[in-house]
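so im writing up the methods section and need the Sodium/hydrogen exchanger record in one place, dumping it here so i stop losing it
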Amino acid sequence: MELSGTGLVYAVLGLGALGAAVLPRIVARRPLSAPMIFLALGFAVFLLPFDLLPDLDPVGSGTTVQHLTEICVVVALMGAGLAINRPFGRRSWSTTWWLLGLAMPLTILATALAGWTLLGWAPAVALLVAAVLAPTDPVLAGEVRVGEPTDAQYDEDEVRFALTSEAGLNDGLAFPFVMAALALSAASLTGWSGSWLWHWALVEVLLRLAVGVAVGIVLGRLLGRLFFRARNESLRLSEHSEGFVALATAAVSYGLTELLHGYGFLAVFATAVTIRAAERPHGYHRVMHSFMDQIERLLTGALLFLVGGFVAQGGLSALTWRGALLAMLLLLVFRPLIGYLSQPPGTRAPSARLVTAVFGIRGIGSFFYLAYALGHGEFAVEAGQLWAVVTFTVVVSVFLHGVAAAPVVAWLDRWDRRRHLETEQP
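--- predicted struct ---
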């Protein structure tokens, strides 16, 4: 009996979709995560002797990888912005600002220096890998992100809020550092000149960040007014409970910002947070978030399945022990240490600061940035080696943080409840 390629594809897609629905509930509160299972399944399936399985080559299929991961990040950012209950503000988001303004650039600097000294990479390559690995992605460790939207403004604990808001913003803020690596690489090929630095600071940092934030806020306010306060009931979409509107909103925000040469990732998150603020207690936020969460789980499961297949087909063959050491230094030393020291000691308990620092999981955003950079510039290291280092970092992060998330956060929740009981006692 001949095996049908189409039938196999449908069967795998269907089983994957069912797994995306079932696995999060099965592994809840266990030292296991759905991303870990999808990675392992992809690895196992691609080891099977089936000629029907495709050859996964991110170097030759960079454009496809870029767009697939781009969609996944956009969906995740919209869902994260809608989930955050806390009102936006300088003080209420203070932990986020410390993580973005201090921890992120210092972690990039430390990783770049390690790549330069440990692997002997050129400064442009070292900066690229550091920038690519900068975005955090707590979506891949569901225990450490905020849940669905609620009526209460401050019901999420500081750890979950900090990690979710940090990931929502640093997916966009990593772009200037990637662009700096591209500019530095171009300058090294044409002859050293510092002229690129001014263009980078004015255009890639100030202008494109400003465009992303402005489009996100303006579009969020317009759509928020349309969704909740439009005079025409047909335009007041909150009355119709159609979750796919969130996907349309994310696409409009991202596409419009990219047309205006701003940072689309930043705009999508800003749009979601602004829409949430338009009518915070409204149940429509839960409808939109639920729809985006379902799409996000499908896309993430599919992508991680392919990552596992890439590893099974020898995707880490170009990895050296120095590249593996760089990944471990980032995950076990640089991020935990810098993340912990970057948070003011008087703001939260040391345990909460430590958990926030440790759970800076790397994920889908890193694949997008690497595919984007390799498609827009030339670097003095083979692309396969860069893919191996980044893939190894993400895989280790998924398993390391996936195993630790449930028990650590459960311990933190028990500690918080005990502390609250102690403060309530006379």
